[in-house]
Design brief:
Number of strands: 17
Shape: globular
Bound molecules: pyridoxal-5'-phosphate
Number of domains: 2
Radius of gyration: 21 Å
Strand order of the largest sheet: 4-12-11-10-7-5-6
Number of helices: 15
CATH class of the largest domain: Alpha Beta
Strand content: 15-25%
C-alpha cells in the first residue's frame, strides 16, 4: 500500500535511492542520466561532497531557530554572498524555501513598498503569457500558461498578461529582431497606460523562459526597453530567475546578461541545487530603505524561511559555483551541448527550433518544420517522450502547450554543470531515440 499522494495517481514511479554525479539510481539498480536536473535544479549533480558536508556540519551545530526570534550565521553568510554578487544595488536578501515562495514574496514586497512610500494605489501586476512563476495562487496568477491556470481560474488574482518575447512564433515576416523586441516590449507600455500608471506596482518576467516555453531567451534589447518603460512609469521590474539564474545560463544573474538591473530578483532551484529546499527574493537598497524608514516590518513570512541547513547548503553551492569556477564552465559546456544538439537535430524533420542559453536548452517539436505546425495535442507527444526517455535511462523535462497553452510540444534540457563530453553524447543519443520512438508510437496509435 502506497500512501504518498503522487503527482500522477495512475503511475508508479521507480524509487530513487542514490545519486552519483549526473546520474540517479533506483532501487533496482537502474541508472538514469539526469539531463534536466529534474526541473533545472541539480546544477552540481547528485553527490557533491562539499555541499553535503556543509549541510551535515550545520545540522551538528544548529538545526533550526525561528526567524521571528533569531538570525543565523548560515543565513547571514549566504545573504552576504548573494548581495555581493547581485547586480546594481540589490543588497537585501529575503530567504524562503523555493521558487513559488520567492515569487510570492517579490509580488508582496512590491505591493508593500508602494504603501511604504505613500503610493497605495499601486497594486496591479503585469506578467507575460507563456511564462511560469510557480504554483501557489499568487505566483500562478502571474503565470501565463493557460492549462496550468485553468482549473484554478476562479481563485486567481486578477493580473494582466502581455505577449512573450517568443521570436520563433511571434516575429512577423520581414520584421527585424530589434523591431520585434520593441513591438512586444511596447505592449507593456500600452498595458500600463491602459491600467493607469498610478495603479501599477510591478512587471514580472523570466529573462529566459523555462518550463512553459522551453528555454526561450528574449531578443537583444528587449529587456533594456522593458527597463526603460518601467522607469518611465515608476513600475518595479521583478526578474524571475528561479530557473534560469544561479549560473544556469552562464552568469549567476541572468538579467545582468541582458544589461539591466531589476528592482527585485527571485532565485531558487540552483541555489540549493537539490541538496536543500531554498529560494531568495533579493531587492534593491531603495526598496529595503523604504521598509526601514516606514513601517519597519514586511507583512509576510514563513515558518521555515532562512532555515540554517538550507542556508548552509546554499552557501556551499555558491562557493562551488563561484570559487570553484563552475559557472565559468557553463558558457563553454553550453556551447558544446548546443553544437551536439544542432548536429543531431538541426535537420530533424520534427524539430522546429533549437534554442536556449548556457546549459538551459530546449527543442520545439513540430509536425511540420516548414509551416511550424504543431502535433495534435491528443497525440500526447511530450508525455510519450518523457516516458520513453525515462524507460531508456534518461531524465528530460518535456512540456506541452508551448504555442498557446494548449498546442505545441517541447523538451527542456538542463544538465548539471559537471556533465562530461561523453555524457553529453549519451544524452543527445538517448533523446533522439526517445523523440523518434514517441512520434512513431503516436502516429501508430492515431
Ligand atoms: N519561477 C520559475 C521561473 C520556475 O521555473 C519555477 C519552477 O519551475 C518557479 C518559479 C516555482 O518554483 P518552485 O517549483 O520551487 O516553487
Amino acid at each position: 500500500m502506497n500512501h504518498v499522494f503522487l503527482r500522477h495517481t495512475k503511475t508508479s514511479p521507480p524509487v530513487a535511492v542514490a545519486g552519483d554525479g549526473c546520474w540517479l539510481i533506483d532501487s533496482e539498480g537502474k541508472r538514469y542520466l539526469d539531463g534536466s536536473g529534474g526541473a533545472a535544479v541539480s546544477c552540481l549533480g547528485h553527490s557533491d561532497r562539499k555541499v553535503i558536508e556543509a549541510v551535515k556540519a550545520q545540522m551538528d551545530a544548529l538545526a533550526f531557530a525561528h526567524t521571528g526570534f533569531f538570525t543565523s550565521e548560515a543565513a547571514e553568510a549566504v545573504a552576504d554572498r548573494l548581495a555581493a554578487e547581485a547586480p546594481g544595488d540589490l543588497d537585501r536578501v529575503f530567504l524562503v524555501s523555493g521558487g513559488s515562495e520567492a515569487v510570492e514574496a517579490a509580488i508582496k514586497m512590491a505591493r508593500q513598498y508602494f504603501i511604504e512610500i505613500g503610493q497605495p494605489g499601486r497594486h496591479h501586476v503585469i506578467a507575460r503569457w507563456q511564462s511560469y512563476h510557480g504554483n501557489t495562487l499568487g505566483a500562478l496568477s502571474a503565470g501565463g500558461n493557460r492549462s496550468r491556470r485553468a482549473l484554478y481560474e476562479p481563485l486567481l488574482v486578477n493580473m494582466s498578461h502581455i505577449s512573450p518575447c517568443y521570436a520563433y512564433r511571434l516575429r512577423e515576416e520581414g520584421e527585424s529582431e530589434a523591431d520585434f523586441g520593441r513591438r512586444v516590449a511596447d505592449e507593456l507600455d500600452a498595458e500600463i497606460r491602459r491600467l493607469g500608471p498610478e495603479s501599477v506596482a510591478a512587471f514580472i518576467a523570466e529573462p529566459v523562459v523555462g518550463a512553459t516555453l522551453g528555454a526561450v531567451p528574449a531578443v537583444e534589447g528587449y529587456f533594456r526597453r522593458i527597463r526603460e518603460i518601467c522607469d518611465e512609469h515608476g513600475v518595479l521590474f521583478i526578474s524571475d530567475e528561479v530557473m534560469c539564474g544561479m549560473g544556469r545560463c552562464g552568469a549567476l544573474f541572468t538579467s545582468a546578461q541582458e544589461g539591466v538591473t531589476p528592482d527585485i530578483i527571485a532565485v531558487a532551484k540552483g541555489l540549493g541545487a537539490g541538496y536543500q529546499p531554498i529560494g531568495a527574493t533579493i531587492c534593491s537598497s531603495r526598496i529595503y530603505e523604504a521598509f526601514a524608514a516606514g513601517s519597519g516590518f514586511f507583512q509576510h513570512g514563513h515558518t521555515y524561511m532562512g532555515h540554517p541547513a538550507a542556508a548552509a547548503a546554499a552557501g556551499a553551492v555558491l562557493s562551488r559555483l563561484i570559487d570553484d569556477g563552475l559557472v565559468d564552465d557553463v558558457q563553454s559546456k553550453g556551447e558544446k551541448f548546443a553544437a551536439a544538439l544542432t548536429d543531431r537535430f538541426g535537420q530533424h524533420p520534427h524539430i522546429g527550433d533549437i534554442r536556449g542559453r548556457g546549459l538551459l536548452r530546449g527543442l520545439e517539436i513540430v509536425q511540420d518544420r516548414e509551416t511550424k505546425t504543431p502535433f495534435d495535442p491528443a497525440l500526447g507527444i511530450n508525455g510519450r517522450v518523457k516516458k520513453l526517455a525515462q524507460q531508456a535511462g534518461l531524465i528530460c523535462y518535456p512540456g506541452g502547450g508551448t504555442v498557446d497553452g494548449r498546442l505545441g510540444d517541447h523538451v527542456l534540457l538542463a544538465p548539471a554543470f559537471i556533465i562530461s563530453d561523453d555524457e553529453i553524447a549519451f544524452l543527445v543519443d538517448m533523446l533522439a531515440t526517445s523523440i523518434d520512438r514517441a512520434i512513431q508510437a503516436a502516429q501508430d496509435a492515431a
